[in-house]
What does this fold into?
Amino acid sequence: MNVDVNVEDTLKEAMASRVAGVQAPPSMGQRIRRRNRRQVVRFRTAGAALLTAAVAGAIPVYLASTAAPAAAPVGTPAIGTSEPAGDDRAISGNVVPNVVGVTNEGVREILETAGFVVGWKKVVTEGQQPGTIIAQQPVGGTVAPEGSTVEVTIATAPAPTSAPSAVPAGDNPLQDLGDLGDGRTFGGVHLDYLPDGLEWGKWSGKDGFGKTSFTTTWVEPSLASTGQYSVQAVVFKGKAARDRRGYAKGAPVKIHGKRGYIGSLTEGGDVAASTPETTLTLVWFPRDDFAVEIMLSPAFVQKLGDDAANAEIKKIAEGVVVES
Amino acid sequence: MTEEDEAAFDEFLAARSTALLRTAILVCGASPHDAEDLVQGALEKVYRHWPRIRRDNPEAYARRVVVNAAITKARRRRVIQEITFASPPDTPVESPDPGLRDLLLAELGKLPARMRAVLVLRYWEDMSEAETAASLGCSVGTVKSQAARGLARIRTRLGTLEGASA
It folds into this structure.
């Protein structure tokens, strides 16, 4: 071969030949929109869906119809549902590998090789091979900061004996924090105040909102079997708390002199008017490395009315005692 | 997102998605299928910000997102295996010397991801040094030196091979 060829031109030609046969598929727009839809369905909804599944685990008949949406929140193309995000984050980080369909043995290596931390969630489902990953967040192909948590949802078989009274079981995989009693003390906080008529949701999660985060819920007893939560609290510590600060949105509030934000957030985490699709959220930072987030479910807000809900969420927050 | 935004996004995809996909393949060395996933992910970001960026050179924004994702992917791949540019089954573009072409692509695959991105943008996308710098978020000087070094490496390796086979 002749090395005196013009390397630039030959390179150009070689590159052209490499990709000449490649065409973007016509379905790309549709797939981008579907991906966008999944992207904006954040853990806020996932949390509620997991909770549904947790309760459904005790009532298998109910489960078949409710677990499905949890596993596949994807559906219609999200035309018109995207909120223009106000923040223009720099695109740096790694591409999240797609691990849906992988077994739980293999997933850690794949994600850690790609530079991510694995966050586990189990969902009781039927019709899915137990031990396989049925969902992940963020979804494969998106770019996320190196070292961030990719949350994977593992299909779990329903318990063989599932009397409705089986909740809470001490070794229930969904009870990350064990039996919390009245649920008011967890993750280094105690809630002095909760609205009347609520009881612990017998559900808790660990690290679902970033490493060293804890969450649990309180429900109206009459609605417990539906998986409908009324109040959810999340405690963020360390890095999870600092990360939480990065996407705190809403109107500024002070909780015992500490800065916080309150707002009705969409699934995408943007502030919006209060509607049945938004979640009333109050997050504040008792310390630099400590954040507490309180959410009222859309149904609970509707029941209370907006003004009462705003008053209640602040009262809950004011009643939170943080361990020193 | 208005209907007009949606329609404009579709137009944008029709005009640019193939070129972006091709660029991604060249920068990260992934299979078309993997690269498609990467480009979809990158364009999802574009879509998310579309109403705001559509009137402000969305193409440059999209390319920047795609190239950054491709560089990251290339670096990841690097850990596992050296990037290979497998010859596609059919290569419609006529080349006087397919052997040389493959060799060049192999050498291109051995370059650091960012250096390769410079060569792809400069010689495949036909971008100016200033445009390349803007796309990669670096200085024009870096583009110049990376392009020169990348080409020099390829020349040297071809020269070594030439010497060995002569």
In short: Chain A has eight helices and 16 strands.
